[in-house]
Amino acid sequence: MTNQRAGRSVRMEGLLKEGDELISNTEKGDVRDAGLIAAAQRVEHYEIAGYGCARTYAQLLRDTKGARLLETTCAKKEQPTRS
C-alpha cells in the first residue's frame, strides 16, 4: 500500500495539518510562534530527508549527475536561513 495520492505525500499533509491545528487551537503569542517554528522545522527536515534518499538512490544507480544535483540541493536546504 502506498501513502502517495496524485503525487502528494500523506505524511507531509499530516505535518501541515499539525501546523493548521496549532494555529486553530492556540492563542496568538510566543507559545504559538514557537510551535509554528517547530512545525516548520519538521516540514523542512522531512523535505531534506527526501532529497537525501533520492541522492542515495541516484548514487546506487550510478547517476553521478543526478546525485551531484541532489547533493547541491540538499546542502542548500540544510543551510540555516537568517532573517
What are the main properties of this structure?
single chain; mainly alpha; 5% strand; elongated
Outline the secondary-structure elements:
Layout: E1 4-5, E2 8-9, H1 10-25, H2 30-60, H3 64-78
Antiparallel strand pairs: 1-2
Helix pairs in contact: 1-2, 2-3
Brief digest:
Helix content is 75%, strand content 5%.
Q: How does this structure look, described?
A:
This protein is mainly α. It has one domain (9-78). Helices cover 75% and strands 5% of the residues. It contains three helices and two strands, in the order E-E-H-H-H. Strands 1-2 form a two-stranded antiparallel sheet. Strand 1 and strand 2 form a beta hairpin. Helix 1 runs antiparallel to helix 2. The protein is elongated, with a radius of gyration of 16 Å. It starts with a strand and ends in a 5-residue tail after the last helix. The mean pLDDT is 86.
Shape: elongated
Spatial arrangement of strands, main beta sheet = 1-2
Distance between the termini: 41 Å
Query: Uncertain segments of ≥5 residues (pLDDT<50)?
Result: none
Count the domains. 1
Q: What value does the Rg take, in angstroms?
A: 16 Å
Mean pLDDT, to the nearest integer, reads 86
Largest sheet: 2 strands, antiparallel
Number of helices: 3
Helix content: over 70%
**Strand coverage percent:** under 5%
H/E topology pattern: EEHHH
Secondary structural class: mainly alpha
Please give the number of β-strands.
Answer: 2
